[in-house]
Specification:
The complex is a heterodimer. Helices cover 81% and strands 1% of the residues of chain A. Chain A contains eleven helices and one strand. In chain A, helix 5 packs across helix 7, helix 6 packs across helix 9 and helix 9 packs antiparallel against helix 11. Chain B is globular and about 60 Å long. Classes of the chains: A mainly alpha, B alpha/beta. At the A-B interface, helix 6, strand 1 and helix 10 of A face helix 4, helix 5 and strand 7 of B. Strand 1 of chain A pairs antiparallel with strand 7 of chain B. Chain B: GO terms for molecular function: metal ion binding; transferase activity. Chain B: One of its GO terms (biological process) is thiamine biosynthetic process. Chain B: This is Thiamine pyrimidine synthase. Chain B: Pathway: Cofactor biosynthesis; thiamine diphosphate biosynthesis.
Chain lengths: 267, 331
């Protein structure tokens, strides 16, 4: 019945339907999940019911909050800003120098290919058990995707547009700020959006390899050890909310700043 | 209503449930960790044919850093698991009714290894120092110990700064921590092999401070123990395994070599395994597989004294049974 209503809503183009459809869809999935767990008496250590997860979530709010601050705020976000910032600066350097383009890009590619399970323990050894090592892991993870997107974005302006700037006697920096960065924005945002997820994964997984006794990765690890899966799922819910929030923020900025781009047109 | 787990569904699908008469009964054993002499008794029983003599076909499934044996058991991936009692009892409290059916290890091999030059000479000195400990269920004895000593684990001058470390001894060697959890039969020797002399270290065996908890017990799901056929299969399994342990304790060198043969990763070295076998033999010495209720009670008391965040909140009921070992030792 839900489904029928939802299909009907999806076929309409009412403004509120855009929000309502995914909400109903998600709720239906949760109800199905609950029904399957209850109906087949699935053991809570395999898959807890959504109601159990919600209960664990509500009764552990203070813990979830300090874990969130430790992992997302002090780890993922700091690493995200640092990593993406360095990558954009590196892209500008590469753009100005053919030597770097030939030298730095392959090295960046190599760093991107390093598996996190290999680098995380080493970085924990170098930077200690605190958030610094998590920041380092996140920087290593987000640097390359951001770099590639930024380099590509800087190539986006057409030769004819650059020639026009040249006839205006615009300097390199003027051309960069007035023409090349704006045309690069769709690519920059693409990189920024991809990196939101990578930053979260990096910060959480890095904690598996060493951490103080706080943090989302730490909590997931110890709660799996004692089979408190409802708490593990509560942490996963926090990660999903944080990830969606950060991604949503980037998408919103993109819409505000690249309103001129064809992909942003609304029919 | 029919009780159905994902694992049972998978088993039904694969059709391996139907064992006709004359077939060997299958037992899937989930180890707590990777293939090493810590599990020599089981590999010896397999290699020397003790399981076969009992009409069993045993699969030994190695574990690893991210494998929680209780979850494998819950999912139907194994009939029986080896687990430390703290983590098994925590799983029981969290809704997975596991029962201890035998306890080959009578002593704990867990200890704290500290740098002597950190000024730590007795447990009370730990306050104000940094301790790296394994978690994933291995942290409970330490937390209980600290709470019994009245030392906090939130850092500061009069508390311990606790770090969650991976399963290696790097934090100690790198001096990121003054002390680290080690096993008598494994990590302690990794520290020694790294070129540290025993004089430079101070060790505290949990066993000596009355806070040790039972390790490497054999656990099965409660519901299966209602089935007499399963109990009989487990009795044969435990009997053969204890024969394996007895042989391994008498022939430690040969036992270590058998373990090496079964190590498919090739990660283990001969020297390390021989030494491990010698140490593990001390932990199984004098045990016949039957759970010592005094040791069980000490484990439970230790866990209940876990401070602000106890592992288990109340004494478990029916978490062990002698039914299997009684049957195994009867013949």
């Amino acid at each position: 019945m839900f489904w029928g209503v939802n299909v009907l809503l999806a076929s309409r183009s009412w403004p509120f339907a855009r929000l309502l459809v995914p909400v109903i869809f998600g709720a239906t999935l949760l109800i199905l999940w609950q029904m399957i767990v209850v109906r087949f008496e699935i053991s809570p250590v395999i898959l807890p019911a959504p109601t159990d997860i919600a209960a664990a979530f509500m009764s552990n709010l203070p813990t979830l909050w300090v874990d969130f601050v430790q992992t997302i705020v002090r780890g993922a976000l700091v690493g995200y800003v640092l990593g993406c910032g360095i990558a954009i600066l590196a892209a500008l350097a590469i753009d100005r120098s053919p030597f770097l383009q030939k030298g730095l890009l392959p090295v960046g590619n190599f760093i991107a290919a390093l598996p996190i399970v290999g680098t995380a323990p080493i970085l924990v050894m170098w930077y200690g058990f605190g958030p610094s090592s998590k920041v380092a892991v996140v920087v290593a993870m987000v640097f390359f995707p951001m770099l590639v997107n930024a380099v590509q974005g800087l190539k986006e302006s057409d030769a004819i547009q650059r020639d026009l700037m040249h006839t205006y006697a615009a300097s390199y920096w003027q051309t960069l700020l007035k023409l090349r960065l704006p045309t690069a924005l769709p690519f920059l945002f693409n990189g920024l959006k991809i990196c939101t997820t990578l930053a979260l994964i990096g910060a959480i997984v890095a904690e598996f390899f060493g951490s103080p006794t706080v943090g989302m990765g730490f909590r997931i690890k110890i709660e799996v050890g004692r089979l408190a899966m409802d708490m593990v799922w509560a942490e996963i819910a926090v990660a999903a909310l944080a990830g969606s929030g950060l991604y949503g923020l980037m998408a919103l900025l993109e819409r505000k700043l690249t309103f001129w781009h064809p992909s942003q047109r609304r029919g | 209503m029919k009780h159905l787990t994902l694992g049972a569904a998978a088993l039904l699908a694969s059709g391996s449930m139907a064992l006709a008469d004359g077939h060997e009964a299958e037992v899937n054993l989930q180890l707590q960790w990777v293939t090493q002499s810590q599990f020599a008794g089981y590999y010896v029983a397999l290699e020397n044919g003790y399981y076969e003599e009992e009409g069993l076909s045993v699969n030994i499934i190695p574990g690893g850093p991210d494998i929680a044996p209780p979850q494998v058991l819950a999912g139907g991936g194994a009939d029986v698991m080896l687990n430390w009692m703290p983590s098994a009892l925590a799983a029981r409290e969290n809704g997975l009714p596991v029962v201890n059916i035998a306890q080959p290890f009578v002593r704990s091999g867990l200890m704290l290894t500290c740098w002597a030059d950190s000024g730590i000479t007795e447990p009370e000195d730990l306050a104000g120092h940094t301790v790296a400990h394994w978690f994933f269920g291995n942290e409970y004895p330490f937390l209980s110990w600290m709470s019994q000593l009245g030392i906090g684990v939130e850092g500061g001058d009069d508390g311990v700064t606790l770090l969650q470390a991976g399963f290696n001894v790097d934090p100690l060697l790198q001096r990121q921590a003054d002390c680290m959890s080690t096993m008598t039969y494994n990590e302690y020797w990794q520290v020694i092999d790294a070129g540290v002399s025993p004089d430079e270290l101070v060790t505290f065996r949990y066993e000596d401070y009355g806070v040790s908890t039972l390790e490497d017990g054999i656990w099965a799901l409660e519901e299966n123990l209602e089935d007499p056929e399963f109990v009989d299969r487990m009795a044969r399994f435990v009997r053969a395994s204890m024969r394996g342990w007895a042989w391994a304790a008498e022939n430690p060198d040969e036992a270590a070599m058998i373990v090496l043969d079964y190590d498919e990763t090739g990660a283990q070295t001969e020297e390390h395994q021989l030494r491990m076998m010698g140490e593990v033999a001390l932990l199984v010495e004098g045990g016949d597989g039957r759970l010592d209720e005094e040791a069980y009670q000490r484990t439970v008391d230790t866990l209940l004294a876990g401070g602000s965040d106890p592992v288990i909140s109340e004494a478990p009921e029916g978490a062990f049974t002698h039914v299997v070992t009684d049957a195994a030792l009867a013949e």
